[in-house]
Amino acid sequence: MLVSSVIPPAGASDADTVAVGLIDGVPLSKEAPPELSALLDSGEARVTFRSLAVAHAQGKRWILVGLGKGDELTAERARVAAAVVHGRAVELRTLALCWQLPNAPTASEPAELAGALVEGTILADYRFDTFKSKSAGTAKEDADEGPRHLDRLIIAAAPEAGIGTEALERAVAAAALVADSVNAARDLQNRPGNDLTPTALGEEARRLGAEIDTLSVEVEDSSGLAARSMGAFAAVAQGSEQEPALITMHYKPATPPADGTPVLGLVGKAVTFDSGGISLKPGAKMWEMKFDMSGGAAVVQAMAAIARLALPIEVVAVVGATENLPSGRAVKPGDIVTATNGKTIEVNNTDAEGRMVLADCLCHAVSLGAERIVDLATLTGAVIVALGSTYAGAMSNDDEFAARVVGAGESTGEISWRLPLHSEYDDLVKGQFGDLNNAPEDRKAGTIVGAAFLSNFVGEVPWVHLDIAGTAWDLGRTYAPKGASGFGVRLLVELARSYC
Ligand code: BES
Ligand code: MN
Ligand code: ZN
What we know:
This protein has helices at 34-42, 75-91, 110-124, 139-145, 165-190, 198-211, 222-227, 231-237, 294-308, 354-367, 382-387, 399-412, 423-428, 446-454, 489-498; strands at residues 2-6, 17-23, 52-57, 60-68, 96-100, 152-156, 215-220, 245-251, 264-274, 315-324, 336-338, 344-346, 372-377, 392-396, 416-418, 436-437, 463-467.
């Protein structure tokens, strides 16, 4: 989708469809065709959030969408409204859509609002049809389908909207870049395990490194894990025929960061298929465990976005990619393995594999000089019980950094809720024969216990663990209802931005 911006009235653009947001108590602009006021007067068009009406005037289609009260119009509501409009627009075979930026006071700044409209539209336009053969439907079905994508999106801001040409252009371009990265992460997530192997994910990361000057990428296989004494990660990988991939990415900005800007570390769990291993999962919905690489996908694409935006902050990323499968070589319950920092781990449950992969990846991020670390992982089913698909779970050893990470997510709509760490939870992960156990017998505080385990591998570095098991797919938001959500990409970019 081509995305651009324009300052004069949207009616002047060559779009076939114009989207107009209706804010409670705010009259339509004087330039709006009288047909729109007629729809409002008749009650067909309403200010109620998400309500839709369509008119034809001045040789164009006009979609009116209710935005509710101005002071409740957050960026997240704008994303949702944009997705609602997108749905109707593509149903009506729109090719070029022009969104008129509301020019009334709202809960977010005009630049933020413009960005949110772009994000909501691009995210809603996402489809994963790589594996659909062209001739899958009948000719009639194909004809009925029509275009399900927009070709072009134009954000138009009247001079009264209070944003200049350049600021609008910048906000729109940045939002499009980041939303494209989210969709790229969704592509990685949606790809099935036989296609997106750990090696294939490593190749995707390499490709980005080759394309972006300031981004360097290194991928190591099982011999790399052995050389680094990453016994925890290697234990998970040993049951699979597929080679694991330890993906290390380094973004060094062309312009040096301001003094005191910390080196940010991003760590992602990328289990490209989690069968549970010897502690095999039940069959129902096991296919969903192809999404168990969602944290890694978000980290890879966030790195690309941060580098493309040329943000003045140094960022290192570590993604641990492997399958978790049962086999004659697989790690077994009771086995004791040694992580790269020397800590020994009793593997009580081979299905608690994410924390073993992350243990070594977190140590690696620390040794690469990360001064703040966020990890993203589909780590526990328990976080879905606790928070559903609404919030990710956030756990941290540092209040200030936690507030920053949670705050970044608030502005992008990727919200997370802090869960506590306490020394009593540390007792739960103590091992009987080794230092730690990866899965305590009774399933108390499952999500927190995962974090308590991970906290053994970050040393003193301020760190936030985001458990995204409930938000990485089937998010249920209008712009990402089913399948991969790309959760975390925008949050990580925003976090990097917060230091710039
Ligand atoms: N990948 C799963 C967590 C998961 C479950 C994500 C359901 C999304 C939906 C993880 O590797 C896992 O299996 N965790 C176990 C941990 C337990 C054995 C301590 C779990 O949550 O049951
Ligand atoms: Mn598992
Ligand atoms: Zn897993």
